[in-house]
Predict the 3D structure of the following.
Amino acid sequence: MPPASPEKQVFTKYLEENGLRQTRHRMLILDSFIANEGHRSIEDIHDNVRKADSRIGYTTIYRTMKLLSDAGLAREVDLGDGMTRYEHLYNHKHHDHMICTECGRSIEFFNAQIEALQDAASEKLGFRVQDHRLQIYGLCGSCRS
Amino acid sequence: MPPASPEKQVFTKYLEENGLRQTRHRMLILDSFIANEGHRSIEDIHDNVRKADSRIGYTTIYRTMKLLSDAGLAREVDLGDGMTRYEHLYNHKHHDHMICTECGRSIEFFNAQIEALQDAASEKLGFRVQDHRLQIYGLCGSCRS
DNA sequence: CTGTGTGCAAATGGTTTGCAAAAAC
DNA sequence: GTTTTTGCAAACCATTTGCACACAG
């Protein structure tokens, strides 16, 4: 048997520490989530997980994705399309998003200077930063022509 | 008669240009909106406008706030409390928000360097910026102690 | 008058919840 | 066997829409 993926180890540990059970459904959802990159909606994940077990319901996806977020494996992102999406957090650098208002595609980017300035600006206002989100809206390369 | 406020002039012009009518309800909503600063929900505005005319319904607030946004007088902000809020845009400098995860209060801030870096980072990725939103989550001065 | 604006109630759509049955331990 | 988890359906809640009536131009 191959060693469990680090994400699975993190999740298992999280479940144990919180007195939660390690169920087959939760593990299938984790499997599907780590096997697919991107900004995935509950519907996306549900469709994908159903290939492994067609009896898994929407509700369980909602509840499990919340657990994965708490466990630090997933991050909720709001791309402005009216539904919560989830992206990988484990071993993924923090980043922000540029969202094309024409085609809806989103580009991930990271800028260390912006990050540093945010911290500095916050500290100056007496604010202790926990997290932040930056979305830039505009036209992507293909749509601006 | 005092001259109409600049906001009223902008809105009137917007309505004319788009073949829309200048109704009493729309003007009352604009009055209420420009008379109160802050991040106001539909419910806030509705409660306030009803003091002037108790027959104005929720629906009209929704529809009119959308018009005010289109006219460039209001901006939708998402403070993560599950409802759309509106803030003034006319003669208000662009700014971003720090949101306290403890008390929910939000602080407005502006940092020219961050703005410039965003534009530069976008341009480098072939992105033409139209707008952007930055929310920093953390603990405000009163809550961090 | 003619056509737009409005209020009400009902519909919508993503998300949450109550509860009995199923699964984990 | 006891307790947690799950699926289903119903509830929720902010927002939108259909429609008959009210109002602006």
